[in-house]
Amino acid sequence: MEGVYVDTSAICYIDGKGGKLYYRGYDVEELPERSSYEEVVYLLWYGRLPKKKELEEFKKNLAKNRFLPGEVLELMDKLPKSVHPMGALRTIISYLGNLDGEPSLSTGDVYQKGISVTAKMPTIIANLWRTKNGLDYVEPKTELGHAANFLYMLRGEEPTLREEKSLDVALILYAEHEINASAFTVMTVGSTLSDYYSAVVAGIGALKGPLHGGAVEEALNQFIEVGSPERAEEWFWETLRSGKRIMGAGHRVYKTYDPRARIFKNYARELGNPRLFEVAERIEELVETHLAEKGVHVNVDYWAGIVFHALGIPPELYTTVFAMGRIAGWTAHLAEYLTHNRLIRPRLKYVGEIGKRYVPIEERE
C-alpha cells in the first residue's frame, strides 16, 4: 500500500519532498516552542487552537482523569516482571476497556474516552516501571502539566522547567503523523465499529514493532554500541555491508531531513550526553554524505533516544512514551473517520493456482 491514498483528512499534512509537517495547517516547527502538548491535543481533536478558558478547562479535565482504578493497580502487580512495557501497556488499556460499561463508538464517545486514556497513559507507564523495579507507586499531581507529571511520577521528584519543556516538545513531535502503520490499524479496527479501547490496543500492538515505534530504543543502543566518534565510520560501513539497518535513518514518506529530527537534535545537543551526541552526529554526517542521494536521511527517532536518556527515562520505556504522545493522533483519526465510516476492506491480488484436483489421502505420497 506504499503511496496509496486510503482516505481524505484535514488533520495532518506531510510534505515528504520539502521536509515539512503540518498539524491542522500549523507548521510543526513552530508549535513546540510556542504551544504545549495539551494545546496540540485540543488542536488535533477539535480542529482549532483553543481560547484561554477552553484550554484551562481541557487541562483540568485531563488532570482529574489521571488516577487509576484500584483494579488496574492490582493488575500491575500481577504482570510478569519480564513483560515488555508495551505489552503491559496493551494489557492495561484493554483492561480499562473492560471496566468501561459503555462500548459504543461515536465521535463524541471517542473524545470522551480519549481524554480518559490520554490522561491515564503517563500514570500507567511511569508506575509500570516503578512496580517492576520494586519502587512505590506515585500518585499523579493534578497541579502539574502533562509532561511534568509523567517525569514526577517516574522519578519521584518534580523536573526542572527545561526538563519539562523537553518532554513536552517530544510529545508534540510524536503526537501525530498522518496515516502511519499504527494510525491505519486504529482506523481499520474502528471501521468495524468495535470500540475505542480495541482500536487503541491494536494501535499499541502496531507501534510495538521495531520498524515503527521500537526504532527509538534501537537508535540509542547503536550509539552506545559504537562508543566513540572515532569508531563511527568503521561501524557505518560494517553495518551497510552486513545488510543491517541504521536505526533512525530513512523514512517511507520523507525523502529529505525529517523536520522533527531538527528540533530533537537541538535538545539532544543541549541536554544529552556529549559523547553519545558526538557519536550520533558523526554517524549522521555519514548518512547525509553517502545515503542522501538515495533519499535516506535521519528521522525523528534518531535523536529522540538521546533526549529521553538525558531525562532519565529508561530505554525500555521509549516506545511507550511514543505511544503516550501518539494517542492524540490516533484519537483524532478515529473520530474523523467515524464521521463518514465505511468498513475498510482492501483486496489481495491472487497469484496462486486454481482448479486443482483434490487427491484422497490414501493416494498421496
Description:
This protein is mostly helical and 365 residues long. The chain folds into two domains: 220 residues, Citrate Synthase, domain 1, CATH 1.10.580.10; 96 residues, Orthogonal Bundle (Cytochrome p450-Terp, domain 2). Helices cover 57% and strands 3% of the residues. It contains 16 helices and three strands. Strands 1-2-3 form a three-stranded antiparallel β-sheet. Helix 8 packs antiparallel against helix 15 and helix 8 packs across helix 16. The longest helix is centred in the first third of the chain and has 26 residues. The two termini are 40 Å apart. The model has no long low-confidence stretch (mean pLDDT 94).
How would you briefly describe this protein structure?
The protein has helices at 31-34, 37-46, 52-64, 70-78, 85-99, 107-132, 146-155, 161-174, 181-191, 196-207, 215-226, 232-241, 259-271, 274-290, 300-310, 318-338; strands at 12-15, 20-23, 26-27. By secondary structure, it is an all-alpha fold. It folds into two domains: 12-208 and 316-338, Citrate Synthase, domain 1 (Orthogonal Bundle), CATH 1.10.580; 215-310, Cytochrome p450-Terp, domain 2, CATH 1.10.230.
Element-level helix/strand string: EEEHHHHHHHHHHHHHHHH
Report the mean per-residue pLDDT as an integer. 94
At the third CATH level, what is the topology name of the largest domain? Citrate Synthase, domain 1
Radius of gyration: 22 Å
* Whole-number tally of structural domains: 2
Quick one: CATH class of the largest domain? Mainly Alpha
Strand order of the largest sheet: 1-2-3
Biggest beta sheet summary: 3 strands, antiparallel
